[in-house]
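>> Question from a student workshop board

For tomorrow's exercise we were told to take the sequence and the ligand below, predict the bound structure, and bring the output to class. My setup keeps failing. Could a helper post the expected result so I can at least see what it should look like? The ligand is S-adenosyl-L-homocysteine.
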Amino acid sequence: MSGKVTLVGAGPGDPGLLTVKGLRALEGAEVVVYDRLVSPAVLALIPPNARRIDVGKEASRHPVPQGRINQILLEEAQAGHNVVRLKGGDPFVFGRGGEELQVLAQAGVDFAEVPGITSAIAAAAYGGIPVTHRDCASSLHIITGHAKEGAELRIDFEALVRARGTLVFLMGVTALPVIVKGLLEAGMAPDTPAAMVERGTLPGQRRCGAPLAALPDRAAEMGIHSPAIIIVGGVCALAEELCWFQRLPLYGKRILVTRPGDRAGTLSEKLRDLGADVVEFPCIRTEAVSPCPAMEAALERLPEYEWLGFTSAAGVDAFWNCLRGMGKDARALGNVKLAVIGAATGRALEAHGLTADLVPVVYDAPHMGEALAKAAAGRVLLLRAEEGSSDLTDALAAAGVAFDDIAVYRTIYDNPHSAELREELEAGGFDFVTFTSASTVKGFVSAVGGDADFSRFTGLCIGKQTAGEAEKHHISVKTAAKAAIDALVELALEK
Ligand code: SAH
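>> Workshop helper replied:
Here is what the output should look like for this input. Compare the format with yours to find the bug.
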């Protein structure tokens, strides 16, 4: 059976600007063919089992010729694959999306198109420039500043000046002086407000504003490079007032997030919404101990326990999978009371319709031990990591509480050594590195190398144990007031 190609607009860079439909298409993709302008944060949304084909660059640093791209799309679809063709911005705005679909149409291959948010509008918006405004622009013109190979730029400047709308030039960085000269010669006032937005919607976004005649010099001074858009028209005068993105509290901060992949979502999103440049580098992953005869035996005797305690969402997952595997469900818990170390573990339980009876005031092992020791009269079952902290069990033992401590998952440090990351860290490329457990510190150190220079960034740690582990490696740390993601985010915001 023949496959299908979905042409998807990836938006200008901020992954939040990918459409819901685009994301769904991506999630179902078997093969993803993408361009240079698709941002790493959007590429990170490609499912791990999908095959990626980068047609934006080759070893020679020349892009793959259009004819070859068309051929790849045809071959992959005809081999029966579900292909997503991912393009920066909107595929039909100077993206050659129409050409690619024509090839598919002519070959009788199924296709669909998901529009994207074009940089022509979004980069301007993130630079504080609305492309139309009742007071100064009633039309919008999007123009390419790129000439066909060997040819001169052919733009009808007189027509553009006459239209009196907002002008947005894409691919115009090289031709900037030619564009400005053309507009001035066609009669546009030299003091017409103008601007450029470089890397729009991305963490390193820069805006450059000047009267039209001065824009080329101003852009050269600032060293504006591609990708950037050029905006000409009265709306550019609004930028100072409306520029919001570059005023976000974490704008300009680069943060490495070391959480395990599938749990990084909320932390990264929160930091990005505050303007940070977030790089995800999952340092550890957890793996359930499976089969786990000790847990199975304990679950057979569940009613003998008064309390069941969890110290992480991974423990809850392992418990639930084991219970279901034994053909049981939540009713097996009967009157057993549930203790969790913190809010996130509580939410993992709630996903199964179960509410925790006990959450310590401070989310860490010593406080959980203390609280459980006080509350327990009968036997306690702990389902947690292989190398769980003895603080918890010591507190129970000291209070004479009987317990079974079963390792139901283990932490795996299989991140390959990353010389690239180490170089960046040592060059001061990151302001912060977040650590959400002592094991993320261990995973991070093992990936970067214990002898690396850790003096150029601050470690944001979720709690005392995590901070203690970081300090062993001479990382300067800040410790969250509470072991919760929001408190970690607060640390990044502290002056
Ligand atoms: N289809 C794309 C445009 C492709 S042409 C879209 O709709 O956005 C490539 C040009 O788009 C670049 O030369 C630059 O002018 C512009 N561009 C793309 N992404 C950009 C970004 N994040 N910031 C500024 N300009 C961008």
